[in-house]
Write a structure and sequence with these properties.
about 35% helix; alpha+beta; two-stranded antiparallel sheet; 6 helices; 9 strands; about 25% strand; about 190 residues
């Protein structure tokens, strides 16, 4: 296929006009998102779904989460999110999300809403009762008795979305309770 002089001039003229218009008409980014987030407090967090550690940026206005998106500085995801991560905002804002602790008494068929103080007291009592009932102070190996000071009835399971500091505190709490069973979901 041969290109004639007239066709070559048409292509060159169209290309030249396109380049000239491109430099004259600089595209302006939409300011809708910027205006929507004006005055918002920004924070970083980690996606809570699969525990890959994808970084997210959230925006809060007046104590209410108004935006949640991938963090471009995130090492794992570099700003992109999977379908579950992209739906995290909808999950947070869901009417079905529990906001207060609930308790179901033994033998009951319904859940009752209780306060945070009552839930923490109940949890602390159960941990203390279990620890005292299963405490092993010493262990005998032949003729020698060794102090072990532990309970084998309590185990703690951490998650991959926790920070190093949270994992340190979780591990420290396990040691204070007296258990050696502190595990991480990524190892299981």
């Amino acid at each position: 296929m041969a290109i004639g002089r007239r066709q070559a001039l048409t292509v060159l003229a169209t290309g030249g006009a396109s380049v000239a218009l491109d430099s004259l008409l600089v595209p302006q980014p939409s300011r809708a998102a910027e205006m929507r987030l004006a005055g918002a407090k920004e924070f970083t967090t980690v996606c809570n779904f699969c525990s890959c550690g994808c970084a997210m940026v959230g925006h809060v206005i007046g104590g209410k989460l108004v935006n949640l998106e991938g963090d471009p500085d995130g090492v794992v995801n570099e700003g992109s999110l999977c379908v579950k991560g992209a739906a995290a905002f909808a999950t947070h804002d869901s009417k079905q999300r529990l906001a207060t602790p609930k308790y179901r008494a033994p033998g009951s068929d319904r859940w009752v809403e209780i306060g945070w103080d009552a839930a923490l007291d109940k949890l602390a009592r159960k941990i203390k009762t279990t620890r005292e009932a299963t405490w092993v102070a010493t262990e005998r190996d032949g003729e020698i008795e060794y102090p072990v000071n532990r309970t084998d009835a309590i185990g703690l399971l951490g998650g991959a979305q926790n920070t190093n500091e949270e994992c340190y505190l979780w591990n420290k709490m396990g040691r204070l309770i007296g258990t050696n069973f502190v595990e991480h979901q990524a190892r299981l």
